[in-house]
Specification:
42% of the residues lie in helices and 19% in strands. The protein binds 5'-O-[(R)-(carboxyoxy)(hydroxy)phosphoryl]adenosine (KG4) and zinc ion.
């Protein structure tokens, strides 16, 4: 089954052709990062206007790169939410209209479920259930137990900033460009241990996270003027990675999970990948970095398993913007 998948939840216009939920025949991502860089973050209205200009060419490019035409497409999938309303509307509307015109099945996909399914795009044996998923992106930080396809139980998450948001805000404090994650990682590679001690919010007895205190501590460190950018970046990254890896590994042990699946843009972070792998009692699966950050192939992978069960999104369905795991898989 060839699925044409579309993703426009934030500032990347993406399209992909995915076969049987496991093989990305193409994955095109048109990044708007340069467009938003001067604002230090994504400007929603600017993002949705750019999606409108780019969506057509990006879909054409995804078909061309896969070496196929619309005649070989069996279904269309598009991110339904959560995300920026104006951005979601472009890709979801485009996908729905294309499917309707071609009389193809259509499926709206939860963006976070998509991130998790990037783990099905890796060659080799499929992930085993129950899998503990750590979803760490610019908008979300969630620990979710996946007992089977489409079955999720959220066991913890951030009480304030998302992990990626913390990277982005700290990058801004350090004068590094948006999106901050890769820039912090690069600066941290030049740094090392120091006498700067940054707080870790362990929130005992829960599997929740909090990064706002850490962010404030970085602000004070910057103002103190005693530490270099690489030193602060290194200490910050270690603090985030310590808590994410520590809690995820402990929960995997308690739940006797078969595997840990990493997902979302922050899963592209090399230190996080390394630290979770070293602390986890079970195998850890991580998609390659280009499938960790926003892309449409992951949306096609998630859609496959639902479409194969006969699920369809009704034509009258609309986008949604809230992060709500209890609603994943239910019709909006
Ligand atoms: O999943 P994603 O592409 O978009 C959302 O759904 O939010 O995640 C983007 C987030 C940004 O906050 C970005 O700074 C972060 O992922 N990120 C990273 C790295 N690459 C991207 N954070 C830490 N280290 C990285 N290498
Ligand atoms: Zn994302």
């Amino acid at each position: 089954m060839n699925i044409l998948a579309i993703e426009t939840s934030c500032d990347e216009t993406a399209a992909a052709v995915v076969s049987d939920g496991r093989t990305a025949r193409s994955s095109i991502v048109a990044s708007q990062a340069a467009l938003h860089a001067k604002y230090g973050g994504v400007v929603p209205e600017v993002a949705s206007r750019r999606h409108l200009e780019t969506i057509g060419p990006v879909v054409q490019e995804a078909l061309a790169a896969a070496g196929c035409t619309l005649d070989e497409i069996d279904a269309v999938a598009a991110t339904q939410g959560p995300g920026l309303a104006g951005s979601l509307l472009v890709g979801f509307g485009y996908g729905k209209a294309l499917a309707y015109a071609r009389r193809l099945p259509f499926l709206g996909v939860n963006h976070l479920e998509g991130h998790i399914y990037a783990n099905w795009l890796i060659e080799g044996p499929e992930p085993a259930f129950p899998a503990l998923c750590l979803v760490v992106s610019g908008g979300h930080t969630d620990l979710v137990l996946m007992r089977g396809h489409g079955q999720y139980e959220r066991l913890g998450g951030t009480l304030d900033d998302a992990a990626g948001e913390a990277f982005d805000k700290v990058a801004r404090l350090l004068g590094l460009p948006y999106p901050g994650g890769p820039h912090i990682a690069r600066a941290a590679a030049e740094g090392g241990p120091s006498d700067l001690s940054l707080p870790r919010a362990w929130l005992p007895g829960t599997f929740d996270f909090s990064f706002s205190g850490l962010k404030t501590a970085v602000l004070h460190a910057v103002r103190a003027g005693r530490w270099s950018i690489p030193t602060i970046a290194w200490e910050f990254q270690e603090a985030v990675v310590d808590v994410l890896a520590g809690k995820t590994a402990r929960l995997a042990r308690e739940l006797r999970a078969a595997e840990i699946l990493l997902a979302g843009g922050v899963a592209a972070n090399a230190r996080l990948r390394e630290e979770i792998a070293s602390r986890s009692p079970v195998p850890v699966r991580v998609p390659p970095p280009h499938f960790c950050t926003d892309n449409a192939a992951m949306i096609g992978a998630a859609a496959y398993f639902r479409l194969a069960l006969g699920e369809r999104t009704p034509w009258e369905a609309d986008i949604f913007t809230a992060n709500d795991w209890s609603r994943v898989g239910r019709r909006y």
